[in-house]
Amino acid sequence: MQVRLGKSAMCALALLALAACGSDNPQLLNITSTTEGPDEFAIVPNRPLEAPEDFNALPPPTPGRGNRTDANPNADAIVALGGRPEALQSVPTRDAGIVTAATRYGVSPDIRQTLAAEDLDFRRRKDGRLLERLFNVNVYFRAYDPMSLDQYAELERFRRLGVRTPAAPPKPQ
Question: What keywords were assigned to this record (predicted)?
C-alpha cells in the first residue's frame, strides 16, 4: 500500500512540476534579442557577380554608392511577387485621391518615433501589478484590451446592416 501511495505522490509531484513549466507568455510579443550573439536575420547574401555583355557600356563607378550585386530585399521581394520596384518611388494616379485625403492635415516625418515613444509610455503605465512585474507575467493583452475591437460584435453589426460578410469561425466558448 505504501509503494502505491509513494508512486501516486511521485506522479502528482511530476505533474505539478510539469504544469509549472507552462507559460502564457507568447514569445512573439518579445521580439528583442536577449543574447549577445549575431542577429541571423540581419545577414543577407549578396547576388552572384555577373559579367556584362559589353564592358564599354558600363556606367562610371560611383564610390560609396550601391552596385548591381548589392542586396535589396524589398525590391527583390516586389519583383518576386510580380511588382515593379520603381513604382515605390511615386504614387500611382489611381491612389492619388487616397493619399491626398490621408495627408490633408499634414504629414509628420517623425511619426514612427512619436508613436513608438507614446506606446512605450502607455505600456510603462500599464506595466502590471507588483507580483506581475516580479514574476514577469505578460500584461500585454490586458493593457490593450480597452482598445481592441470585438470582431464578433462587428460581424453581427455588419450583417444587421445588410453588408455581405465572409464566413467566420464560431465564437470561442
Answer: Signal
Please name the residue that has the C-alpha cell 490593450.
144
Q: How far is CA 72 from the centre of its chain?
A: 20
Between CA 114 and CA 31 the distance in angstroms is 20
C-alpha pair distances (Å), 36 with each of 7, 39, 43, 89: 44, 9, 16, 37
Say if CB 33 and CB 39 are below 8 A apart: yes
76 phi, psi to nearest 5 deg: -65, -40
Q: Which residue type, as a one-letter code, is found at position 162?
A: G
Here the cell at position 128 is: 502590471
* Contact yes or no for 147/122 (Cβ under 8 A): no
Task: Say if CB 148 and CB 161 are below 8 A apart.
Answer: no
pTM of the model: 0.38
Question: Grid coordinates in use for 66?
Answer: 550601391
Tell me how far apart the alpha carbons of residues 35 and 41 are, in angstroms, rounded to a whole number: 14
Q: Looking up cell 507575467, which residue turns up?
A: 137
Tell me 93's DSSP state. G
The 10s digit of each residue's pLDDT in 64-92 is 777 767 777 778 888 888 888 777 777 77
